[in-house]
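User: what does the whole thing look like in 3D?
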Amino acid sequence: MNLLQNRRFIMTGLAPAVILYALFVFVPVIWSAYYGFFDWSGIGEASYIGLQNYAEIWRDPIFWRALKNNIIFVLASVFGQIPIALVLAVLLHKSSLLHRFLRSAVFLPMVLSTVVIGMIWQYIYHPQIGILNFLLNTLGLDSWRLQWLSDPVIAIYSLVPPLIWSFVGLYLIIFVSALQNIPSEIHDAAKIDGVSGLRKLVSITLPMIKNTVQVAIILCISGSLKSFDLVFIMTKGGPAHATELLATYMYNSTFTTYRYGFGSAISTTIVIISLLLIGTSQWLASRKKDAV
Amino acid sequence: MKKWITVLCFTLITSVLLAACGGGNGTGSGSSEGKVRISIWHNWTGQDAKATAMRQIIEDFKNDNPNIEVVDEGLPTDGLRTRLRTVAAADEMPDLFVMWPDAMTKEFVNGDLLQPIDEELAANPEWKNNFIPNALDGYTVDGKVYSVPMNLAPTSFIYYNEAIFNQYGVKVPTTWEELETAIQTFNDNDVIPIALGNKANWVVQSTLFSTLADRITGTDWFLKAVEQDGAKFTDPEFIEALNVLKSLGEAGAFQEGFNSIDETQMMQLYFQGKAAMVINGGWALANLVNNAPAEVLDNTHITILPAIDGGKGEANVTSGVVGTGLGVSKKLEGARKEAAMKLFYALAGPDGQKATLDSSTLVSYNIELDRSKAHPLFVELYELMQDVKITPVYDSKLGSAATEVINNGLQDLLMNGKAEDVAQKLQDAQAQAAGK
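Assistant: Here's the predicted 3D structure for the full assembly of 728 residues, as C-alpha cells:
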C-alpha cells in the first residue's frame, strides 16, 4: 500500500515535467520527421515525396563533407579538449591562490559568449591585421603565413583551436572536482606504501576518476555534434561549404534556400546519427567494463 | 545512470534542432471602437537618411490620421526576410510589409497571401505612369500588379579613390585591359587594387559577377538560361565569364583572405585608403558619405565595370533590381484596407518617392533631383544612372537553391575551383528548380 501510494505520488509529481518535456521535445522531433517526407518551401502546399529528401541527402556531397567536418570536430574535441583538460587538472587541482587563478584563466572562455570568442579568433586569423600572421612574420616564418579562414582546404582546421580553447575550461572544472573527491585516506595509504609521482597518477588517480572521464567524453561527443554557433559566426559554413557542419547544413538548407522539407529531413538524419554515435560509445564503454 | 545520460544527450541534441525553430508572433488586427488598426513591418531601423525619412512619413501619417492606429515594427533586413517566411508558413501576415520583387513576390502570390493593387494604380494614373520602364515587372504576376518599387538598387559600381589613381599615374579603367594594367600597377606598389569581403557569400555574385557575366553573355542568354529554355549554364560563354572572374582573382585584384572578411571590413579597407577601388552596390554610398574620412570621401568617384571586348552584352549597363515594395495582405478589406492603402500611398506614392530621393537613395520613379540639397557624390551617382541601364542581378532571377550554389561556387572559384565544375553545379540546381 505504502509502495503503491509512493509510486502514485512520484507519478503525479513527474507528470507536469514529462508532459512539458514531451510537448516541447518529442512532438517537434516527430513533426520534423514528418515534414521530412514533404517538398515544402514554407509557403503554400506541401507535396508528399516519400523518401526523396533522404535520397537527396545521401547523394549530396555537401552532406558528406558536413559529416566529415563534424567527425573532425568530434575527434578534435575528444582528443584535444579531454587530454589537455586532464593534464591541466592534474597540474592545477590544489586550492592554492596560483592554482585558483590559473584555473579561472583557463575557465574564462566558458563565460564568454560564443559570439565574442568568434570575434576574438576572427581577429587573430584576420588576413590583414591578424595577430597570428603578424607573429609568424616577426619570427621570420613568412612561408607559414596562410589565409586561415579564407582557404577552403585549411579553414576547418583553423576552427579547431578556438573550439578546443573555448571548452577546455569546462572539462578542467569537472576533472578538478573529481580529483578533489578522491578520499584523502587513499592518498595517505599511498604515502605509507611509498607510492608517489607518476606511479600514483597512473595507478591511483586516473582509475579513481575513470567514470568522470567517461561522462566527459560523452558530453564532449554530443557537444561537438551539435556545434553550430562558433562556425556560424566565424565562417557561416563557407568558404564554398568548406566548414559546413551538419547543423549549419541544416540551417542553410532551411533558412537560406527555404527548403523546409529538406531541412527537416536533415534534422532527422542528425538525430539518427547522434543516437548511433552515442549508442556506439555507450556500448564500447560498457563492453570494456564487462571485460575488466 | 546510463539511461539518464542518454536522455540528457538526447535533450541536448534535440534542443539545438529546436533552437532554430522559434516562431513568429501573430499580429493583432482587431479594431477598437471606431479606430482602425493596421500593422506594418519594415526594415527602416537604421540611422541612415532613408530609414529616418521613412519613419518620419509613418509618424506624420499617425499624426494626420488620429482615427487610424498604425502598429509599426522595424526589423533588420535579414531578420525581416526570415520572419516574413515564418509568418507566411503560418498564414499570419501583417497588413502591410516591406517585400522584395521577383522571387519573393511570386512565392507570396502563389501562396495566396497578397492582394493586387491594380485598382489603386488605375485610380491614380499620374502615379502609375511615372515609374521608369519595367519598374513594375518584378511585382507583376499573371498580369496583376501587387506592389510598386520604393527605390532602385543598382548592385554594381566601382567606387575609386582618385588620389591613389593619380599618385601612381593610373587611368580609371574603361576597358578590361586598362583594368588589368591598373591591378598590375597597384600590386607593384603594395596598394590593394580592389577591396573585397566575400564572407557573406552573396557579395561577389551581386556586386561584381552579375555585371561581368552580363557583359560577356548578354542579358537574353541569362534570361533563357534561367528558364532553361535554349541556353544552359554549361554553355561556353558562361564558362568564359567564370574564367574572366577567376583570372581577375589570379591577377591579384583582391586582397588576401577576402573569403573571411565581411562587407563592413571590406569598406573599412577602402576607408583607410589601403585600397584603390571597392566594388559595391548603390547602398554603399550612404555608408561612404557617413563614415569615410574626408580625405577618402573627397577623392571618391563612381563608375561602372569596364567593357569587355568581344562580349555579347552591352557596355553601358550595370546589374541591379528595382527596390523593395510594400505587400498588401490578402485578408485586408473594408475600412482597414482603405486605411492601409492610404498609408501605402503615403510611403510609395509621389511624396514618398520624393522623400526617398531626397534622402540620397535612387528611385525607380521619374522625379528631378534637387541638386542643391544632395551630397555631391550622390549627384554624381544620379547623373551616372541617367544613361546607365539596369540588367538583372543573378540572385533576383535564380531560385534560392541555385543562388546558394552560385554564391558558394564563386567563393570556390576565386580560391582554386574550376569554372566547369561551378557551371555544372549551377546548371544542375537550376534545371532541378525549373523542372518542378
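In plain terms: Residues 60-291 of chain A form a domain with the MetI-like fold fold (CATH 1.10.3720.10). Chain A has a mean pLDDT of 87.
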